[in-house]
Design a protein that fits this description.
endonuclease, alpha/beta, six-stranded mixed β-sheet, DNA recombination, 24 strands, nuclease, damaged DNA binding, 19% helix, 5'-3' DNA exonuclease activity, Metallo-beta-lactamase, Chain A, 459 residues, DNA-binding
DNA sequence: GCGATCAGGT
DNA sequence: CACACCTGATCGC
């Protein structure tokens, strides 16, 4: 677990996705997407005051993110300080120290991140080199190779550092079904239910504010219906989403929230509380797309105890069960496990709760070859020592099936680019730092290393 | 009274 | 375990 405090070592006068503490002094702000854990400090009175006295400090984000942000009155004061930028359109920004007048120019390019509406990655190019901040991202294999701005001619730009979303920097997440697989599973499960009668209702119990729109539009299209949501304000300028959502509660698919939603559902009512017009009890089914991009457990793939006493959740389609999930853990007493995990965390002094902040690790990159999925890193950089950072040389790579044995001393970029694929493409997310070090050591010692796609082991 | 933090929840 | 939140109690100002 690592976190990102908001600034990059190459360009410490700008802040990304963090707006508190030291970030209050920054010359420019960048918001990758509109999730609360990336907005810490964004509505702070201190920052608001600073803006009122500044003529140069601005917040840069995508047009969609601007819309979503300003749809919340708490952030309305940002209106005059936001500069929305088009995707894949390099823009020069002047970073000005308003006290001294000192100025530094930088070029920023927004790249689509595929995480939620408006989400972007930021590519910065300036005097301290080229760096990429990914924010949260969800790209399919090969997407990166199609991002023109990561390339220069036929080559990949020399990227100094990648500030990589480390949410899935954990081997537990090496199996993540594709977005398409998740969607098809949802379509099938929901279609089977709501086609039974008009009293069959599905509740999409969504947790995040944004990120499910892809699901809504596809469900709406497939079943020729609209999805009930709490309000539409944030989508008012997004007709392609707006046409698939509604505040009319008389629909079979709901993604609304209500303080008593769970209670209503038990009572055969819709999560928003309304009943069938003729009083017939509704047949409710609940789906928790906890984040549909990594799937989750179902009845069939319920958690299995593993020797460590912890649980593994197999990736799969969204959990769907009738009304309640009380029976989800049939036959398994989870309480001792929870206690054990809690004690373990306390013993190791791990916070009980994750702090509200973006997760990112800084990877120093020698060259990034997305067309082959190869990421080389630089030798250790003593200036990087924060928790969770990779402090030793690391190779993130995966051999192609027909490639010959690895001879680390002879490992050239050209050989590598033809022989390897990266195991930590965004689709499968990244392996753990420990694992990378292990892999590197094996390579450095001359051992042959074979990693199978989708696997985290080596040997 | 207000925000930040913490403890609980989904 | 995780995601991305939410509610409510408590603390500091």
């Amino acid at each position: 677990m690592s976190s990102f405090a908001g600034r990059m070592k190459e360009y410490p006068t700008l802040s990304l996705d963090r707006f508190d503490r030291e970030n209050l002094h920054s010359r420019a702000y960048f918001l990758s997407h509109c999730h609360k854990d990336h907005m810490k400090g964004l509505k702070g009175p201190l920052l608001k005051r600073k803006l009122q006295f500044s003529r140069t400090v601005r917040l840069y984000c995508s047009y969609v993110t601007k819309e979503l942000l300003l749809s919340n009155p708490k952030y309305a004061f940002w209106e005059e300080y936001i500069v929305p930028l088009e995707l894949e359109s390099p823009t020069q920004i002047s970073l000005v120290d308003e006290a001294s007048g000192e100025k530094e120019d930088i070029v920023v390019t927004l790249l689509p991140a595929g995480h939620c509406p408006g989400s972007v990655m930021f590519l910065f190019e300036g005097s301290q080199g080229t760096v990429l901040y990914t924010g949260d991202f969800r790209l399919a294999v090969g997407d990166a190779s199609r991002l023109e701005h990561l390339h220069s001619g036929s080559r990949v730009k020399d990227i100094q550092s990648v500030y990589l979303d480390s949410t899935f920097y954990d081997p537990r997440f090496h199996q993540i079904p594709t977005r398409e697989v998740c969607l098809n599973g949802m379509l099938e499960l929901i279609g089977n239910w709501i086609s039974q009668s008009s009293y069959h209702v599905v509740w999409l119990n969504c947790k995040a504010a944004y990120g499910y729109e892809y699901l809504f539009t596809n469900l709406g299209e497939e079943f020729n219906t609209q999805i009930h949501v709490k309000n539409l304000a944030m989508f008012k300028k997004m007709p392609e989403i707006l046409s698939y959502v509604t505040t009319d509660r008389n629909t079979q698919i709901h993604a609304c929230r209500h303080p008593k939603d769970e209670e209503f559902l038990q009572g055969n009512r819709r999560p928003c509380g309304c009943t069938a017009v003729d009083g017939t009890p509704l047949r409710n089914q609940q789906s928790k797309p906890s984040t549909m991009w990594f799937g989750e457990r179902t009845r069939k793939t319920r958690p299995e105890p593993v020797p460590s006493g912890l649980f593994r959740f197999h990736s799969s389609y969204s959990e769907v069960n009738s009304g309640s999930d009380d029976d989800l853990f049939d036959g398994l007493d989870l309480e001792p496990v929870r206690k054990k995990m809690k004690n373990e965390r306390r013993r190791r002094n791990v916070p009980q709760r994750r702090e509200l902040q973006p997760h990112a690790v800084c990877l120093s990159v020698q060259s990034l070859l997305p067309e082959h999925g190869l990421l080389f890193t630089r030798p250790p950089d003593p200036s990087i020592g924060a928790e969770g950072t990779v402090t030793s040389p690391v190779l993130l790579l995966q051999r192609k099936e027909n490639a010959g044995p690895i001879v680390p001393s002879e490992l050239s970029e050209s050989q590598a680019s033809s022989d390897f694929e990266v195991p930590c493409t965004p689709e499968s997310k990244a392996p753990q730092p420990d694992e990378l070090l292990h892999l590197y050591r094996k390579l450095a010692s001359g051992d042959e290393v074979v990693i199978r796609k989708g696997s985290q082991g080596s040997g």
